[in-house]
Design a protein that fits this description.
The complex is a heterodimer of chains A (282) and B (293). Chain A is mainly alpha-helical and 282 residues long. Chain A is built from 13 helices and 2 strands. Chain B has 14 helices and no strands. Classes of the chains: A mainly alpha (282), B mainly alpha (293).
């Protein structure tokens, strides 16, 4: 009976768990196994030990792409938090048209990333909107995806797409703050700034932290934006970790085991971050 | 007097903030939309279009639309009709979303209702897959699919898309089932229902909005995928929309702004419509799925 009950309960979750093991755990171990091999064209793969890892650590690409990934992710998350928090505070106020603005605010998040990239391609073009705006204000047009501005330009796209996620999370957090706290603070004559610092902020801090950590993980792993806009260029200016491993596998060295070793090397960073995020979430 | 003054000041600040927010969101969107309803000779003109056409959207469903219009190159070297990737994207996203909603429904029910040893571990694992950056799976999954003969097939792509969609579906549906009072099921059990039939007859109909939200969310996640499509598909007749759109950007020069913006607006509008219809549920589902255990 006990056994039958256990089986019955497990049967509900088994298909999903099996699928997720095949899609996550199995590939991770498989990747590990590939990373110790060398596969030459037309030949069988052979075990070469740590050869790929030595190559990875001696390659400047590793350090360039790590640095780029951190610049990309941390800057983007910083601005997404800032914009998401401001808009959430703004749309938590009571006024007419708030519902419409809330609907509009999730629009960037609803659009697929590659569609947004296409939109920004049209905007970044020499004859595009952004340069037209600059001309309108009497400024010189910018080569948006050129050497100097490529990184800020891809960060702008990520921020534009990702801030509604912060907005939605923080808004939900704001709605959970008990009104009584504000009322008693008002009796004490607290200014709105003090109310924000002493009541609102402590309440929404865990939400902001969770959302920021999740977003940090996803931004570090963001492939679509970089691939569509710059493919890591110009001159590796926007080469992040996902883009670099893709390029090593299919364009630069065309060496899949090397690319596998590459992702294994950065796995510890992810594991630590995932661990922190999980602790924050559960 | 000063109170009146403050009221006006607040109102003015709200208006300014609202305008800034609207501009921030609509400026990048406006240009693409404007281009997609322009005639070719106005494609790059700034400002409002003088003449408007919806012909470009109708052309999406004709073979070789943009190439014919511009008469560039031989037909053999031209992109396929845009309807082919549209169809592929729909097939992949609908099947992936259906599978993930069904699996997520059972798994979510399990996590919301049953108590057993190892449940905590299962929950941690699902959260892990929810957070894990999927780009790391691309290369090993490509090799695995190659060995089982599913590389360059839509079936393979559908299966791999479950990596995006399934964790979301499970977490989202779990929180929906937890909202439904367990007493309803218990009273059905007393009336002689089995556990399964009380789930099917009581809980499932009540969680219909959750199921729809999960489907829509999974659909858009699959619809949004570029990475796996790029690595797994090589035949052009299997291309999904992101790959097709990449074709327009080949070499980094926009040859056909109208074609590009039309496909982009069409592709973007599908998830947007779904989100707008289900806006209330999406926000609830997303925030709960992401933030609560």
């Amino acid at each position: 009976m006990e056994y039958k009950k256990a089986l019955y309960e497990w049967i509900y979750i088994l298909p999903a768990l099996t699928t997720l093991v095949i899609l996550f755990i199995f590939p991770l171990f498989f990747n590990f196994w590939i990373s110790f091999q060398e596969k030459l064209l037309g030949k069988e793969a052979v075990f070469v030990g740590l050869k790929n890892y030595i190559k990875v650590f001696n390659s400047p690409i590793l350090y360039i792409s790590l640095l780029n990934t951190f610049i990309y992710a941390f800057t983007a998350v910083f601005f997404k938090t800032l914009i998401g928090l401001s808009v959430a505070l703004f749309l938590n106020m009571k006024f007419r048209g708030r519902g419409f603005l809330r609907g509009l605010a999730i629009l960037p998040w609803a659009l697929p990333m590659y569609v947004i990239c296409v939109l920004f391609w049209l905007n970044y073009d020499a004859k595009g909107t952004f340069n037209n705006l600059l001309r309108l204000f009497g400024l010189k047009p910018i080569h948006w995806l050129g050497l100097d501005y490529a990184m800020p330009s891809v960060i702008l796209i990520n921020v534009w797409h990702g801030w509604p996620f912060f907005f939605m999370g923080i808004l939900a957090g704001l709605q959970a703050v008990p009104i009584e706290l504000y009322e008693s603070a008002e009796i004490d004559g607290a200014s709105s700034f003090r109310k924000f610092i002493h009541i609102t902020l402590p309440f929404i801090k865990p939400v902001i932290l969770t959302v920021a950590l999740l977003s940090l993980m996803w931004t570090m792993g963001d492939f679509t934006t970089i691939y569509m806009m710059t493919s890591g260029g110009p001159v590796d200016k926007t080469l992040t970790i996902p883009m670099a491993s893709f390029q090593i596998a299919f364009f630069r060295e065309v060496d899949i085991p090397l690319a596998a070793a590459y992702t294994i090397v950065i796995l510890p960073i992810y594991i630590i971050l995932i661990f922190i995020t999980l602790k924050q979430m559960v | 007097m000063s109170k009146e003054y403050r009221k006006i000041k607040t109102k003015l600040m709200i208006i300014i903030a609202a305008i800034l927010l609207i501009l921030w969101i609509t400026i990048p969107l406006y240009w693409a939309f404007k281009t997609s309803i322009s005639y070719p000779e106005e494609a790059w003109n700034p400002g409002l279009p003088t003449k408007v056409t919806f012909e470009n959207y109708i052309q999406l469903f004709n073979p070789y639309p943009f190439a014919k219009r511009y008469a560039i190159g031989a037909e053999a070297a031209l992109p396929q009709p845009v309807i082919v990737p549209i169809k592929n994207s729909f097939i992949v996203a609908i099947i992936a979303a259906t599978i993930s909603t069904i699996m997520g429904m059972f798994a979510g029910y399990n996590l919301a209702r049953f108590h057993y040893k190892g449940k905590r571990l299962a929950m941690y694992y699902i959260l892990f897959t929810y957070i894990f950056p999927t780009f790391m799976l691309a290369i090993p999954l490509m090799i695995i699919l190659k060995q089982i003969g599913l590389l360059n097939t839509l079936q393979g792509l559908i299966f791999v898309h479950l990596a995006y969609t399934l964790p979301y579906s499970i977490l989202m549906l779990r929180s929906y089932f937890m909202e439904i009072p367990i007493e309803l099921e218990e009273s059905a059990l007393i009336d002689g229902c089995t556990r399964s039939s009380s789930f099917l007859r009581i809980t499932l109909p009540l969680s219909a909005p959750g199921l729809v939200t999960s489907f829509v969310f999974a659909f858009t996640l699959s619809w949004n995928d570029l990475l796996f499509a790029l690595i797994l598909l090589s035949s052009t007749e299997l291309y999904t929309l992101p790959l097709e759109m990449n074709f327009f950007l080949w070499g980094g020069e926009i040859v056909d702004p109208i074609g590009l913006s039309t496909v982009a607006v069409f592709t973007g509008i599908i998830p947007v419509i779904l989100y707008m219809v289900l806006q209330k549920y999406i926000i609830i589902g997303l925030v709960r799925g992401a933030l609560k255990r």
